[in-house]
Amino acid sequence: MFRFTTTYHALFGVLVALLLTPSTVAALPWYGGQFSADIIVYNPEKPEEKAQGQFYVGHEKFRAQGVHAGIKKSVIVDFGTRSSWTLLDNDKTFHKGLGNAPIPPKPDQDPTPSDQQKPCSLAQVTCQKAMEKVMVNNIMTERWTITANQGGRSMKMMLWIDPTRRIIIRQVTGDDGPIQERILLETGTLNGRATEKWEFVRRYRNQTASNVRWIDAKLRVPVRLVRKGKLLMELTNIQEGAQDPTLFTLPQNYTEVASPQQNQQMQQQRAPGGQYHQGR
Which residue among 24, 88, 187, 206 is the one 20 to 30 A from 94 at the CA level? Predict the structure, then answer.
């Protein structure tokens, strides 16, 4: 785990938050098309918690359904309305939010300053694009400098962006902050589809973490994830095509229940030394 000083962490958080505000996320490019697939998410430390099921992607919506920890669950996310639900299918109940359900892979595209109104339009942020393109890890990139100011302090983030794939090849935060980059190892096919194999590396001071991801070249979705030699996620049997809109709607015969987070808060309030106020 990477740890930051309080001041550094606060400034770093400002930059990240500005790049990932809800208005920005809503405008992010989506997967490269609508599709369905089989998905398996592994937990190397707890093999019994393997989640296996199906993944459906529509227009700015997705649904992941299957069995996790012996419980049949479905997760629906609507990025257009920034809504999400977890369905407990055996009980025909649901709660808002994602709870502890495994999250399927996000699109392999990053928020970039060149195509987003934020963060560069904000008063406390300035963005500057270099005139010339730069070769980084054998990828021709655009170099951006993003500066955020907060409480009289300034923090810079350098981004080297592949404008064709719309991904960040290298990210450097501050003079002594973390460095994140990705390296294209090879291109080929996986399960009959054109695929790019990338290594993702993060360095901070004396610590290094990395993983390897296989990305579907057309759909821009990760189809395999390996960390420390262990398989963490795999997407197979991809079928392209429009998806049934009802997959992404909340069933009318399901009853809403409290989310795990809400239950935890209620338990903490009931605990000795805490206070519990029953709602009117």
Answer: 24
